[in-house]
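Supplementary Note 3. Input sequence used for the single-chain structure prediction.
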Amino acid sequence: MRGLKFNVIFVMLLVFVGLAAAQATGSAGLMSAIGNLCKLVSTLLPTVALLMIIAAGVLYAAGQFMGAETRARASVWATAMLTGAVIAVLIAVIAPWLLKLVWGTGGTTFATTC
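The predicted structure, written as discrete structure tokens, is reproduced below.
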């Protein structure tokens, strides 16, 4: 219970710091931050998905050389990694479209970064 209380206080502190930073920069800073988030999602997630697919293949292949229990675990882990990679690709494809839909064009900065 004590750890939960600490976690809630920590999250609330992060929220308040984020609100204070948003107040200081205004809406132009918000659009810049959203554009940077969109750029990060568009570049980082496909790379992570590719690495997860490669790691899943290596893990599955390595599991085939092991015993039955380890083979089953490796197969489950590889399936989970492939699922995560598919979700990452979906997020990378849908997030820029969704951000543009919600925030509109938002000026040239947002339109060019996303």
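Residues 23 and 29 are 9 Å apart (CA to CA). The mean pLDDT is 81.
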